[in-house]
Amino acid sequence: MSLFSIAELREAADYVHEYVPPTPTINWPLLDRATGLSLYVKHENHTRLGAFKIRGGLTFCRYLKSSFDTVVGIISATRGNHGQSLAHAARLAGISATIIVPHGNSAEKNAAMRAWGAEVIEHGDDFQDAAEYAARQAVAKNLVMVPPFHPELVRGVASYGLELFDAVKNLDRIYVPVGMGSGICSLITVRDALGLDTEIIGVVATGADAVLQSFRAGHVIETAVAKTFADGVACRCPDPAAFQIILKGASDIVAVSDEQIRDAMCLYFSSCHTLAEGAGAASLAAAIADRDRNIGKKIAVILTGANIDRADYARVLNGDLP
Questions:
Q1: Pairing between strand 38-43 and 25-26?
Q2: What predicted TM-score, i.e. pTM, was given to this entire model?
Q3: Is residue 147 within 8 Å of residue 76, measured between CB atoms?
């Protein structure tokens, strides 16, 4: 059973499209030639925040405003794109946003969140530490804690899935990066609501493979570390609600190395002249790694975002790891 009906998904998409124009899905000849595959790139790096997350923040803040008489402000943890989304949506809704990031987080993502009006606080060594601190601060300061996964986040993010399935018919397989799950769960929700049989493959990094380990085990597994430069997938414990949707709706979860992600980022630049952050390129890396089973198939890859610090991107294009 789909999390939302197709009517509910299209209503949310209409709302999202008041602020976010549909992003393009492009079949790049040079990319096909380089990979030997038939690839359709969903360019979520083309939103005004440079990432798909902008969509979910809009529907979540609309839900807050319509469900509660008074909302002082929101608080959440992020490695960047989720926080930008909430800062942007809170600004539109006229409420405050406090975003907790781990120490060493992307300086440029932090600057972008502050530019949208959020208070950005550094705490902890990774996303998990930041999330636990945010939850404590929510209680102390009477703020609404925005989780990394929530049905209303999924409903907004699902607008990109509707765009993709409307643009390209009869897709055999979609590769999508997996962090805390809103992206892959939105695709599963849309596919099921449309009654399609497209396979959805989640992609993680080999150094941050909690979702992969959990998928194989059939229950949530927390890892001790999440070590990858692709910060959008650097999670060491899946969200339980998201995991249940993934477990039932994903065809597979696969892992790619940081080196494979780096090479995919370079390929995006050379073949498409487009910018991809680490997590954004993970789906392309996985499609290439699965080349044998993808030959002759119609494949989509979700380029989830473009937000990477300039110095790190320069190292990537030079063939190094950030």
A1: antiparallel
A2: 0.96
A3: yes
